[in-house]
Amino acid sequence: MRIVADTNVIVSALLWGGPPRAILAAARDQRIVLLTSAPLIAELEDVLGRAKLARRFTEIGRTPAELLDRYLALVGFVTPVMLTAPISRDPDDDQVIATALAARAELIVSGDHDLLDLGCYQEMLIVDAVAAVERIESVNR
Q1: CATH architecture of the domain formed by 2-139
Q2: What predicted TM-score, i.e. pTM, was given to this entire model?
């Protein structure tokens, strides 16, 4: 199964755990193919560098660079397609869709309602992390 995860899911996975971390575990175990793009990595670097997360990095004893390196070791890269028109209410979310189209993803995983409210785009389901984990588990039974 080919999956593109929104930055909010990856930040949750790297810093807190739960279903988002289970998605990373599935990539590590090669039960899914997790794909990303340069624009999504740039956004992830920006978010991980925010001062409001500094305390969490101290709590877990890791640096943003360490977590980014771990993530980069799990993912494949694609070049996002050029979209001809906006798709999401939030233009920043269109990078996730453009990446997923280029990746030929089956799932887009997000915690962002601007994406989740779409539900589906060109046969790609857009789901939250809990639904993604359920789907991964059902496929790998």
Answers
A1: 3-Layer(aba) Sandwich (3.40)
A2: 0.95
